[in-house]
Amino acid sequence: MVVAINQKPSIDYKKIKAVIRVDNEVLFDEHLFKLFRFAANYYQYPIGQTIHTALPTRLKRDQNKAKKKAYTYSATPLLTPEYIENIPLRKKKLKLMAETLMKKNLNDMEIKKLFNTPQIIIRELLEKSLIKASEMEPAINRRNSISIELNEDQQSAVNEILSKQSFHPFLIFGITGSGKTEVYMKLIDSYLKNKGQVLVMVPEINLTPQLEKRFEKRFPENKIISLHSHLTDSDRLENWRAAKSGKAQIIIGTRLSVFTPFKNLRGIIIDEEHDGSYKQQDNLRYHARDVAMMRAKLLNIPFILGSATPSLESWALVKLKKLHLLKLTSRAFQNATLPVVRLIQKSNKLTDNYLSEPLLNSIQDRLSKKQQSIIFINRRGYAPVLFCPSCSSNVQCPKCSTSLVVHNKIKKLRCHHCDYQRLIDDSCVQCGNLDLITLGSGTQRIEEILSNSFPEAKIQRVDRDTMRSKNKLDKLYQDMTQGNIDILVGTQMLSKGHDFANVTLVGIVDADHALFSHDFRASEKFFSQLVQVSGRSGRHKDQGEVIIDTNFGKHPIYSYVQKQDYELFADMELNLRKELNFPPFFSHAVLKMESKSLGLLENFSNFAFELANQLKISDVKINPPTRPYIEKVNLLERAHMFFESKSRIQLNKLLFLLRQNLMESKLAKKLKWVVDVDPIEF
User: Fold this and answer.
1) Cβ pair 643, 656 in contact under 8 A
2) What are phi and psi of 461, to 5 degrees?
3) CATH architecture group of domain 152-328
4) Alpha-carbon distance values, 544 to 122, 495, 505 (Å)
């Protein structure tokens, strides 16, 4: 990809590779190149690799072929009963296929089911013009469009956004179940009438199937595609080209879709904009929300964010009048209200089963009413620690500075950072004690407890171990909708956008550990998580209930959750952030370093620290190198160096100069290092 031409390159011309070929296809337009330059400059990443990130895998590998086309075959006038009669007896399959095609048309899939070697026979019939092939277009659901009447808040939001045709950033702040998706669809309907395209971004792949189905019902005449990492390379290329050509009108995608070329993009919608999944954690460490806003600005089109728990960065922009706030204050379903949130003090009412007695009783009540329950615990596996009470040791990962997690289903210990695994120990490797115990709980243990407590209930576990494919997610949604599941047990996957009409109880288990995290964003993440998962309860006609098992019921964050008062929580948290010089009031960046050699890591981190100080960029605080909370991952020792500044311009200036100097250093080539701007994980 040629991004610029320089007659006098800064490197030795002998090191420059020769051009292999010239491809005349224009992949990106001018505004996308501007977007790439913004991303490369802001996130301190090479422009070439930035563009490379945006390309579908097949294009990167010079496999410029789209998905194989499907055809329907039909007989021509040349295929007559007389011709069939004269086919030699040795060509039984040819005769049978010819007879079949005389009676009805067949597509590729139908032929494959009927005949073992269809391609050879098809080719012979085509060459003799006995049949013809017609390209099959993907089937489009032609059902009547279903439009829901909007309430006052929803209609007001739609009118406000549609009144602005140029770049205007909006935040739709609506309580859980307030009907943000219906607002999106009203907006999309308007953009499509003007022959435009719309990009709808979602944080997780598991949200795309449900959203696609809703959109297909609403827009039966329009082509809807998805762009995410679970697609095959050929499917992704085909959908990418459909967006580029304008053939697809509605594009639903995860974070990488922000770099997709479009023919006539008229609006960008980012659902659940608070979600951390929009931040890329390797290579080009961009935040899709911020890149999308810049793209909307370059195209001069509306930009819409939506969330029940907006990110504090977005809320700060609302306070500064840089984001226009639109509130949805009531649930969309008639007479539906927010759930009642109850705090249960575990220390007083804890059973041997890690679940409080009131929670177990409430589950039983829902079972008797044929209603569904969700039990949320944000930890997969059976237990986080295998502990020896004799010598007080726990089983550590040999590759990472963290404990191995017990997975009872497969009888193994697993590391959730490097995926190292081994059989569960029979005795303590330190002292030989045979009486090892498990501490804490995960989804597997809670599933086991619920199965023992309610043997007749249909229980489904949802975490990364069970939901590895789109098909399983589709099946889960179908089973929940059809009432084939009574209790759903899972991690944060349950908190993201799902709408189950018959869920009236949400139980939150073992959440207290998030109250004492080293991460300054922990309160924001925890509050958002609790509100989002609570919002799965009582979204339709029946009153919902949320039960939180806790040892710290008087912690302020639980009172905010009980009140479902995001604004009060956000204002409190922003005031605290301002006092401590944390984002969004200060800009942060971190130089992340990894090496198998601890000595090399220390030498490089000290070198980088000295170099950064020598650059003498004002208004930037350069903190000495430190070890992160998890010091080693997959045999790589880790170190971080933090930068803080009130001036984003000064910070980026320092980062640019530092990166340029480091790349020229021989020491920098001996280990892994990357600059992470606006980090959300440490």
Assistant:
1) no
2) -95, 135
3) 3-Layer(aba) Sandwich (3.40)
4) 59, 15, 6
Give the SS3 label for residue 508: strand
Distance CA 308, CA 173 (A): 6
CB 185 within 8 A of CB 111: no
CA angle (329, 514, 624) in 5-degree steps: 115
Please report, to the nearest 10 degrees, the dihedral formed by the alpha carbons of residues 521, 522, 523, 526 taken in order: 130
* pLDDT value at 240 more than 80: yes
pLDDT digits (tens, 9 = 90+) for 54-98: 988 887 776 565 556 678 888 898 888 888 888 888 888 888 888
The tokens for 498 are 């799902």
Structure tokens at 308: 């029940």
Domain ranges, ordered by start, for the chain: 13-60, 71-135, 152-328, 340-382+441-576, 587-677
Give the pLDDT confidence of 334-379 residue by residue, as tens digits.
777 888 999 998 764 444 568 999 999 999 999 999 999 999 998 9
The reply to whether 152-328 and 587-677 are identical in fold is no
Gap between the Cα atoms of 530 and 19, Å rounded = 54
Q: Which amino acid makes up residue 203?
A: P
- Cα distances from 263 to residues 258, 493, 599, in angstroms, run 14, 33, 52
Q: Which fold has domain 587-677?
A: Alpha-Beta Plaits (3.30.70)
Write out pLDDT tens, residues 521-539.
999 999 999 999 988 888 7
Residue with tokens 């409190």: 572
Q: Which of 235, 267, 40 is nearest to 170 (CA)?
A: 267
Please choose, from the candidates 127, 116, 69, the residue with its C-alpha nearest in 3D space to the C-alpha of residue 93.
116
